[in-house]
């Protein structure tokens, strides 16, 4: 083999994406010493996206103090890639559910304001391209807080400026864009969004997600009515109709806020990451792609990293092998198009041992070497 690409997600709690690739490279060179190995850390746009893209594309992690979902100061980080123009943000670092104790969770009060502050900080540092993951939010404010941090104002029927949180959605009557940051006109946003929920309704942001953020039944109804009102105001004031856009309900309507006000593009997380990496160019001419993640099951083919890598391989007729620490639904995975599905555990072990980094690295090398020996045999006969 002349070229093999290794593009695996991390095995969470055990080994990172780049460590998986390094283990694979050692195994490949045992069987094919002269093979070019292209190592590409990847992820699906969720936790770890900043680290993944900085590792693959260079850049730095930036830290700044913003406001958490309840407007308390919190130190948050994001990445600026090597081009010094592209920022990678995980909104959960500023507006995530884990920042709010269970006893204080209330999506009428929580706000995405801190996410807007991260965007503003990155724009002040020269960034004009944004890749943003919006999973794990504590909010249901339709993105109003994020927009308020960027200079947008939401007014009631009397022209009074409204405060923060999901509680304002029912009272929004006018939108004042006159103070929105001028840099936004030359800025593009790509949003990692792996849900298809609409902005409001039975399958919308409030009814599907708000309870896990602290809402009771009455709050859910109020929030849904608020999102419906906000969507109507957006449409009435000359913006797009966001009611039925798949993914507009992501992160408590933040997806819809990005689309309506910042002309953002919503993409599946893995697609956002692979496009940023120019993955299709990286794999061109490869003989084989190796991918993987900690657990392979029926969810793998619903937007997880290995499936995104598989789809890229299929487009160029490159076979893809997938490795996993825990493997279920092998038949379904095979039917989806993987050349082989390789479980890593050689014998029953405790969870502690299964998660041990050295143990996992040895098993990645062992499993791949054995598979590659079979491939080598049939190449030579």
Describe the structure.
This protein has 381 residues and is of the alpha/beta class. It has two domains: 1-40 and 286-378, Glycerate kinase, domain 1 (Rossmann fold, 3-Layer(aba) Sandwich); 47-268, Alpha-Beta Complex (Glycerate kinase, domain 2). Helices cover 37% and strands 19% of the residues. The protein has helices at 17-31, 49-57, 92-95, 113-124, 144-149, 205-209, 217-236, 250-262, 269-276, 279-282, 305-315, 330-336, 351-354, 357-380; strands spanning 3-6, 36-39, 59-67, 73-81, 86-90, 129-133, 153-155, 174-176, 188-192, 265-267, 288-296, 320-327, 340-343. Strands 3-4-5-6-9-10 form a six-stranded mixed sheet, with helices on both faces. A five-stranded parallel sheet has the order 2-1-11-12-13, with helices on both faces. Helix 1 packs parallel to helix 14 (357-380). The chain is elongated.
Summarize the structure.
It is built from 14 helices and 13 strands. The protein is of the alpha/beta class and 381 residues long. The two termini are 14 Å apart.
Structural features:
2 domains, 5-stranded parallel sheet, 14 helices, 13 strands, 37% helix
CATH topology of the largest domain: Glycerate kinase, domain 2
Give the N-terminus to C-terminus distance in angstroms: 14 Å
**Given this structure, which CATH class of the largest domain is correct?**
Alpha Beta
The named CATH superfamily of the largest domain: Glycerate kinase, domain 2
In spatial order, strands of the major sheet run 3-4-5-6-9-10
Structural class: alpha/beta
Estimated share of beta-strand residues? 15-25%
Secondary structure: helix percent? 25-40%
Discrete helix count: 14
Q: Which assembly state applies to the chains in this document?
A: single chain
The sequence of SSEs as H and E is EHEHEEEHHEHEEEHHHEHHEHEHEHH
Q: Which blocks of ≥5 consecutive residues have pLDDT under 50?
A: none
Q: Mean pLDDT, rounded to whole units? A: 95
Radius of gyration: 23 Å
InterPro entries: Glyc_kinase_flavodox-like_fold (IPR018193), Glycerate_kinase (IPR004381), Glycerate_kinase_RE-like (IPR018197), Glycerate_kinase_sf (IPR036129)
Protein name: Glycerate kinase
Organism: Parabacteroides distasonis
Family: Belongs to the glycerate kinase type-1 family.
